[in-house]
Amino acid sequence: MQHDRLTHEIIGAAIEVHRLLGPGLLESAYEECLAPELGIRKLEFRRQVPVPVVYKGVKLECGYRVDILVAGSVVLELKSIEAIAPVHEATLLTYLRLSGNTLGLIINFNVHILKEGIRRFVLKHKETPKELR
After folding, report:
1. What residue numbers bound the domain in which 84 lies?
2. Facing residues of 122 across strands?
3. Pairing status of strand 74-79 against strand 103-108
4. Cα separation of 120 and 122, whole Å?
5. How distant, in Å, are the alpha carbons of 56, 81, 94 from that of 66?
6. Residues ≥6 apart with Cβ < 8 Å to 118
7. How many domains does the chain have?
């Protein structure tokens, strides 16, 4: 599925969750509700996908996890916070680099209008460590 269409479907699912739940819940509640919405849209996804850190050729399991990986290519970083900070953007960019994906969304559900809580990030090229391919 083309990335623009895919992100459109993902954002539609997130808007539906936000429309029904509103802001103010824990991130885990939004993740639980977003999963069936992605399924309704027939999008393949995995939750809590481990992201190893490769250091000097050694794959280290440090406990990093992508909240949701859609269609094996779009990293979703879900938040329920007052505002997206530069550290959240840096985290998503790092997850993209470590996982070898090029497209990611931060979705902050703790806003009154969801479109104000969505940020899209694209790496210009894959930077996949050889060990993760």
Report:
1. 3-132
2. 103
3. parallel
4. 7
5. 22, 17, 11
6. 11, 14, 105, 106, 107, 108
7. 1
Residue with tokens 């539906």: 16
Return the structure tokens found at 49. 């996908």
Q: Determine the 3-state secondary structure of 76 from DSSP.
A: strand
Give the Cα separation of 99 and 128 in Å (integer). 7
Q: Which two tokens stand for residue 128?
A: 């996949």
| Per-residue pLDDT at 63 | 86
The pTM of this model reads 0.89
**Residue for token digits 């393949």?**
44
Residues 90-113: pLDDT tens digits? 999 999 999 999 999 999 999 999
Max intra-chain CA distance, the chain = 46
